[in-house]
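Question (not urgent): is this output format expected?
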Amino acid sequence: MATAPTLYCKKRELSTRGYLNKMKKEGWIPGVIYGKEKNGGTILLEAKEVKKVFSHTGTRGIIMLEIEGEKSPVMALIRELQKSPIGDEYIHIDFLPLKSNEKVHNIVSIHLLGEEQLIEQGKVLQVMTKEIEVSCLPADIPESISIDLTNLSSGDKVVMGDISLPASVELLQDPSTVICIVAQTRTTEEPESNVVEEAAKE
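Got this back:
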């Protein structure tokens, strides 16, 4: 597991609409830490810091929350992230606190390597998903999963069961779930959609 990013936050004493609107105008994002006592369960995060961290690490994986007035940081995952429909601004974040000795369900990003080479060869890549759901201890959460596509031929497909996961990481999805399909090169006689459908049935 890579070093977890840190977000500094302060406790939120009020939950009135007027107070929250005032905090948002001052550059704060309200949040909640599930299961934490009232002295730390509702928090405020600085919007600029949140954007900075998310732009570098994304919103998946462990985040360390350093709460004003508390000695120990809280290890957590983002469970819900609300955005404004206008301007794409973060407006609320829910966190799930973790324990180092308890397994957690998490979504991990899949990185497809060699996609450009396939396209250069005239092949058509149909991507079904770029995420995988796993269960493991917090320290074992993969930063991402990489799949090399360079040796695939037309008609090949990659499924969840093809991924080689560490022994400490359990796949929570059907192993036959398709990640991507390499379709035959498009021709005038056979539309791309038909080729992809046939490959998915194999």
